[in-house]
Amino acid sequence: MLMSSVFRRSAKYAVSCSSSSNISSHACRTMASTATGTTATADSAPATSNGLMKTSLNEWHKELGGDMVPFAGYELPVLYKGDGENSGVMKEHLWCRSEGKASLFDVSHMGQIRWHGKDRTKFVERIVGGDIEGLKPNHGCLSLITNANGGIMDDTVITNAGDHIYMVVNGATKFTDMKHFVQILVDEFADADVTMEYLQDDMQLLALQGSGSAAAILKLLPASITEKHLQSMAFMTGLNNVTIDGIEGCRLTRCGYTGEDGFEISIPAGESTLQLASTLIADPTVNPTGLGARDSLRLEAGLCLYGNDLDETINPVMGALSWTLGKPKSRRRVEQGYVGADTFLTPEGKLKKQPRKRIGILGMKAPARQHTEIYDSLGENKIGEVTSGTYSPCLKKPIAMGYVETSHAKNDTDIQLKIRNKMVSAKVTKMPFVESRYYRIPAE
């Protein structure tokens, strides 16, 4: 079989290590360096004058008053300025939490990957701890990519899309992730039938979040997809190759990172993305929303931001994310087999004790930002550090998360925070800070 026939041409940097193609390990390594090089971003999306990549909505954001900032190598809006009654981080945040409303986010900086070949599930279960084999068609899960030391390289949403596996990774880590994937392909799967297709910026990603999301998206779906269909579409499930606003080749996934009901829409880049975004915000229930509100929404929901709350020094047990590994005695907990599993799981699949743990923090009168030091109740011994902190628009008080020594991680434990060189009293608390409203199929 010719090499070109096993490549997925929608991606400039597809990588294949398939036995049927007879590609050598050396050839695969050569392709790997191309697939993960820094030039990939430069070739795949227009750049601003300062070298930042642009999404398809770059000018659209600016026309709406977007305050553009660097984020994960892209220029994206942190908020929308102007005279609009729904502009600014606070108002954008509260709009998303309001009944019957929806917020539109541009998250096209994130990496979209498709895995092909009969060995795709075996490979993906080598790089993450989730039960990918057990996913029904069009069902997905949040999982973690771990390194040999058990540290979290990234968090990822993975979906069984039927004839392929669809993966979304973080924008700031996508090239590091792919370099890791390719190395395992080369070292362990050189004779396997598995192909990585990186969609680059040919496909954009929009997130529609809030209790009004289903009603807003339903108006743009074909007549064959009815309200009843959406009502039976559980959170973390999706539709592949769906037409939205007359645009073919989209993927609709009921998921998001705000603690609300919502959808992520994978859509062809360019005019199609511009058309859909413009149609959505023409709906009076939909408001364009920036990165600032996305961050405060995810923190209220108790969700981690990679690079702040998760990194390669933190394993899933420390990060209070062991639920992504499956229940005790489940197949993946017992069989393991993914990179780094033995560093935080016993051979029986039990969780190994950890020196520190992620916690929620409430009770301080002033916001505690990243790197704020955490002390014991007497303020004498440093026991940890804040990783994310903000003012909660819904609770109208500061909230934070961070890591402390495990002996101090129990809920309601008194702690002290060193804010502006002053000790401030606070308490360890459970998360989420605001009750999550992920969609659940109504009971019959």
Short overview:
The chain is 21% helix and 28% strand.
Characterise this structure.
- This protein folds into three domains: 3-36 and 110-198, Alpha-Beta Plaits; 58-108 and 203-299, Gyrase A, domain 2, CATH 3.30.1360; 355-433, Beta Barrel (Elongation Factor Tu (Ef-tu), domain 3).
- The strands form four sheets. A six-stranded antiparallel beta sheet has the order 1-9-5-8-7-6.
- Helix 1 (25-36) runs antiparallel to helix 6 and helix 4 crosses helix 10 (291-300).
- It has helices at 25-36, 39-44, 58-63, 89-97, 120-127, 174-188, 213-218, 227-231, 271-282, 291-300, 331-335; strands spanning 15-16, 66-71, 74-80, 102-106, 111-116, 140-146, 152-160, 165-169, 195-198, 203-209, 238-244, 247-253, 262-268, 286-288, 356-362, 373-375, 382-392, 397-405, 414-419, 422-429.
- Strand 19 and strand 20 form a beta hairpin.
- It is 21% helix and 28% strand.
- The protein is globular and about 60 Å long.
- The protein has 444 residues and is of the alpha+beta class.
- Total strand count, please? 20
> Which radius of gyration do the C-alpha atoms yield?
22 Å
**Spatial separation of the terminal alpha carbons:** 52 Å
Helix share of residues?
10-25%
The CATH architecture of the largest domain would be 2-Layer Sandwich
As laid out across the biggest beta sheet, the strand order is: 1-9-5-8-7-6
- Enumerate the spans where pLDDT stays under 50 for 5 or more consecutive residues: 1-44
Total DSSP helices: 11
CATH uppermost class of the largest domain: Alpha Beta
What share of residues are in beta strands?
Answer: 25-35%
Kindly state the mean pLDDT as a whole number?
91
The global form is globular
- Structural category is alpha+beta
Q: According to CATH, what is the topology of the largest domain?
A: Gyrase A, domain 2
Number of domains: 3
How would you sum up the major sheet?
6 strands, antiparallel
CATH superfamily of the largest domain: Probable tRNA modification gtpase trme, domain 1
